[in-house]
Amino acid sequence: MANIIRASVVQTCTSRFNLSETLDKFENLTRLAKERDGTQLVLFPEAFIGGYPKWSTFSCVLGDTLPQGREEFLKYYNAAIEIPSPAISRIEEVSKATGVFVVMGIIERDGGTLYCTAIFVDPVEGLVAKHRKLVPTASERLVWGQGDGSTLPVVGKKFDSCVKKAHTVDAKISATICW
Questions:
Q1: Catalytic pick among 71, 93, 164, 178
Q2: Do 108 and 131 meet the contact criterion of CB atoms below 8 Å apart?
Q3: Is 46 a catalytic residue?
Q4: Contact 105, 44 (CB under 8 A)
Q5: Is 34 a catalytic residue?
Q6: Is residue 1 over pLDDT 80?
Q7: Which of 46, 72, 125, 140 is catalytic?
Q8: Among 34, 130, 133, 157, the one annotated catalytic
Q9: Beta-strand (E) ranges in 14-167?
Q10: Which of 52, 72, 157, 159 could form a disulfide with 5, with the two C-beta atoms 3.0–4.6 Å apart?
Q11: What are the beta bridge partners of residue 108?
């Protein structure tokens, strides 16, 4: 009974092509979860930052791409974030200010490749790990690179028990993305 922590699962979407609005939404929802529910761990959806490109075709046809598809992909590429970056710093700041451990789906930009990635942000240590989706599914492969086994973290974290004072809970935190 004493090994209980409070976790919140946030079901929301990105503000399409608008990193600033998406980060504001993240901060507001994390603060709400902390203030209303006493959340210690908050989980945001796959591709929360950068967005899941459902309904986007980027005008892809085998052997051809149209100019409007290139423009749409450029917007999507620019909505992705790098690690490290000012966006990661802001996520770390919110985590620290609220005392909430954050697991969040982002679209990570690394060189010329985009990855569907889950990040793990500790309120004390900051960014502690990331996991890149191993095998993008079907047409996701047109926009996301493949991850590999080097980013399959299991993060250890001690949380204060929600039930029993002066008791800590040793948790192991990990994430998978579809496959």
A1: 178
A2: no
A3: yes
A4: yes
A5: no
A6: no
A7: 46
A8: 133
A9: 41-43, 60-61, 64-65, 101-110, 113-122, 126-132, 155-160
A10: 159
A11: 81, 115
Q: Nearest Cα to 107, choosing from 9, 24, 22, 11?
A: 22
Cβ neighbourhood burial of 61 (10 Å; 0-12, 13-18, 19+): exposed
For residues 160 and 40, the answer to whether their CB atoms sit within 8 Å is yes
Tell me how far apart the alpha carbons of residues 103 and 173 are, in angstroms, rounded to a whole number: 9
CB 10 within 8 A of CB 44: yes
CA dihedral 29, 31, 32, 33 (to 10 degrees): 90
Mean pLDDT confidence for 113-140: 97
What pLDDT does residue 149 have?
A: 87
Six token digits for residue 10 = 């946030």
Nearest-CA neighbor of 50 among 91, 8, 80?
80
Peptide bond into 45 cis (omega under 30): no
Q: What is the pTM of this model?
A: 0.95
Report helix, strand or coil for 61. Answer: strand
